[in-house]
Amino acid sequence: MRRRLTAAMVLMVVSTLLISGLVTLYLVARSNTIQTRNELVREGVGLAAGVQQEALNANSTDPARALRSLLIALRSPFRLDGSAVVAVLADGRVFDPVTPRAKPALPPGITVSSLDAPALYQLRTVSGETAKGVVFAAVPYKASILILGQVRQVVQVVVLTRTPPSAWSTAGAWFVVSSLVILVVAGIVAYRLGRRFVAPIRATQLVTSRIAAGDLDARVTLPPHSQRDPELTELATSVNAMAEGLGRVRADERRFLQSVSHDLRTPLTSIRGFAEAIQDGATADAVAAAGVIAGQARRLERLVADLLALATLQARRFTLETTVVDLAAVVSSSAVAFSPAAADLGLELRVRTHPAPLTAVADADRLAQVTSNLIENALRYAATSVEVATSPPGPSAGAQNGRPAGGWGGWVEFSVSDDGPGIPQEAIERVFKRLFASRPGPDRPIGSGLGLTIVAELVSAMGGRIRAESPTGPAGGTRMVVSLPGGPLTDTDGSLGPAGVAPVSEAG
Length: 508
What we know:
- The chain is an alpha+beta fold.
- It folds into three domains: about 170 residues; about 100 residues, Helix Hairpins (Orthogonal Bundle), CATH 1.10.287; about 180 residues, 2-Layer Sandwich (Heat Shock Protein 90).
- The protein is built from eleven helices and 13 strands.
- It is rod-shaped, with a radius of gyration of 52 Å.
- The protein starts with a helix and ends with a strand.
């Protein structure tokens, strides 16, 4: 890549030099042409004035012959390619003043039409360039000459031609020298820039290859003077961040597999042990042993169901049927199903609903699943009670500008609170990740560590937000708050009805 970059930069410089050289040579050629034309005009005016003055002083009637002889003498010092002396009459005829009956002899490439006889007769100098690049100048002056035995007043014209110096001969040597110097400098600069840019990219490529091969500890070393090349610094930083992220993912996957293996091994060990005891007749109470086997089997079933549910949710291979649902009704019915479990654990389960009817845009079944998972999680950690509460429409921590996308009545919320030990502040952000679980209360069922992850996925799919708040009191406590898009603000048939505080179950 370094060679390609160096070659590309040198090629770009060569192309620039070629274009600029052609433009420069063209401009030099035009400058030489204009300069040669001005010189010819100036020389022609001088010659014409000198000959005209000499003719007046000597009363010569043949100034053309004298001028022609002078031009022949001056042709070499003046670097003239050709010269001629002609005369112009008022009717525009051009003739040779020495031999009027002969056709005028003009320098090669010059024609009578090139001279613009009317302009010359009005004593205007005419100059130009032939198709072959020869510059000419025609300078008129008045003269009295003898034509066919008569002295006549005519306009006599001196015509001079010269080939301007070529642009290459003028600037070619300097162009070659400057081009060589520029190419050498460009090659050195291109090589150094190639090393400066390609070396970090090459190092980054090697690190990414190591990462792809599984070495997640590989890191890109920031190049020296990295502040000069912020793009390369950002590339190295991004690769390092990617490696760190992959490392965290691998660690999470390792912990996930270890936790799942443990969660699978523990009930399997119990099932196998009691099954072998029944088989060998080593247990006195086969019914109790069968009960343990059934309980551990149900635990395995929950874990497998949670794994399948999480895989389905994260792959987005599930459907939602969102409708306007009665939030209080769904939450209350889900809470009622946990009344026996709360009673068995000696806990009070309360439902606190807002007096006004509350509706949410959600999938009723998925909402019930969310509520059930949150209540089940709270029962594992609560000390004396669990409370489920609903809140009216309003701005939410998950809302944008206080209004949910597609919601009609702002945001509605429900929360599940427990008075357990709470969650450490450093762990608040990780409660909804896979397999995050703290030790539950004594004699409480151990979860799979996937319930809150499933809740977060379902709430996000329904367009809502979930957050954890802890501690919620002096002794600790945790509150899980779910925000959902609100439905219509009012109920049309009054079926929702007001609700208050209702204890679902109380421990004796």
